[in-house]
Amino acid sequence: MSRFVAAIDSGTTSTRCMIFNHRGEPVSVHQLEHRQLYPQPGWVEHDPLEIWSQTQRAVTGALEKLGAAPGDIAAIGVTNQRETTVVWNRRTGQPYHNAVVWQDTRTDRICADLAGAEGPDRFRSKVGLPLSTYFSGPKIRWLLDNVPGLREAARRGDALFGTIDTWLIWNLTGGVNGGVHVTDVTNASRTMLMALDRLEWDDDILAAMEIPRAMLPAIRPSSDPNIYGYTLQDGPFGARIPICGDLGDQQAATVGQACFNVGEAKNTYGTGCFMLLNTGTEIVPSKHGLLTTVCYQFGDQPAVYALEGSIAIAGALVQWLRDNLRLIDSAPEVENLARTVENNGGIYFVPAFSGLYAPYWRSDARGVIVGLTRFIHRGHFARAALEATAFQTREVLDAMHQDSGVALQALKVDGGMVRNELLMQFQADVLGVPVIRPRVSETTALGAAYAAGLAVGFWKNIDEMRANWGVDKIWQPSEDDAPRTKLYAQWKKAVTRTFDWVEG
């Protein structure tokens, strides 16, 4: 009997393969970074061929570390940075252009034109999303408009669109030799092209965005007993293994956190920061700047939906301090640097590098640092950068409470930044509720593994998966209410200083 399930987790800055046992414990991991490409201000790209190459190396590395035989792997799940857009030739396997990353803002004019007199909520009633540079649909339109010959290739059926999950599954299942062109409902729900209620591509929106339907992948459940496809004998897994789990990274983390009940929420601290609240089989429209999205769909069961608050820059701000300002040599150093000061010294760092996402949706915003005096030094910069993540999370939580009427009693957290003890304590202080870190904090990969394992019976039901979840640490909010009153009020004031920076 197969002993493990594998997950490929292709994120914004790196790809890894993680292998899990039946208890949901990681038994092997191999992770490799890929380049961040910035050809113009506001543009962010990745090389899809580099991501595919790094994926293959990550898989072979994880298998070698474990010493696993091909038959030891029961199934494979894939999870991915969601809205990042790839278009490639089905006959050659070559991308027509670098991947346009979710943070990229080049589609601002396209979004404004599509909004027209109806405004940014033109399609929201169907897709749960405002028109924004964040989502895949406008990125596809930009590529069709700007890559010579692409629109004609798309009409012929030679050009395929996919988010990174689709690109990897196509390559893993054969590529130009019969690769399967699929995505799941969660990733499809982030394109602005899928009707939430029908879980199908919407012809009216495709017509409005001038996107040929032939480009688009088939939409499948997140956990599919019918199997998307199988890896190749001569591929990186070295065997014919079913690929049957696929989730966007934030939905995968929600599954990995076992947030299967209505009202359960999690927050993932990665490149960006993403809070999801399970709303069950009900599609809940947001009136306070949140996104309505698909949370997951298991087999032939009804889809489960969520409210999401998306923050563009969280861990990426620490990376910026490291790579651009060179205040630190490695990301973990930011905590020690921040601990050299008792507070932020009066400065607030609003990292609207790509505009503001939830709850503002202001593409005209750009980052600011306010409150500078000669007293400020590098320790205050580090502390203000960490506090920015906590304050942004508070804004999302407030919006979620307004939309759902549910007062959160505790917040489950995961992602790379949850090892930062100073940040987690400040987060509890700003929210006024306990913050809970699970034993397995890398829940994105775990959620993809759960989806795949559920499809083949490795886990029988969600109760088995829920039983694997356990607490590693809880941070209780302090009695000092300044972080959630005075400091938060100053943060809100700082946010207003980012508005209207980009004109026209």
Q: How much β-strand is present in the residues?
A: 15-25%
Could you list the spans in which at least 5 consecutive residues all have pLDDT below 50?
A: none
Order of strands in the sheet with the most strands? 17-18-16-15-21-22-23
Number of strands: 23
Please state the average pLDDT score: 93
Radius of gyration: 22 Å
Q: How many individual helices?
A: 16
Tertiary shape: globular
The major beta sheet can be summarized as: 7 strands, mixed
For the terminal residues, how far apart are their CA atoms?
A: 61 Å
In helices, the fraction of residues equals: 25-40%
Which structural class is indicated by helix and strand composition?
alpha+beta
Topology at a glance:
Blueprint: E1 4-10, E2 14-20, E3 26-33, E4 45-46, H1 48-66, E5 73-80, E6 86-89, E7 99-100, H2 108-115, H3 124-127, H4 136-146, H5 150-156, E8 159-162, H6 164-172, E9 182-184, H7 185-188, E10 194-195, E11 200-201, H8 203-209, E12 218-220, E13 229-230, E14 242-248, H9 249-256, E15 265-269, E16 273-280, E17 291-296, E18 304-311, H10 315-323, H11 333-338, E19 348-350, E20 368-370, H12 378-404, E21 411-414, H13 421-431, E22 435-438, H14 443-455, H15 462-468, E23 471-475, H16 486-496
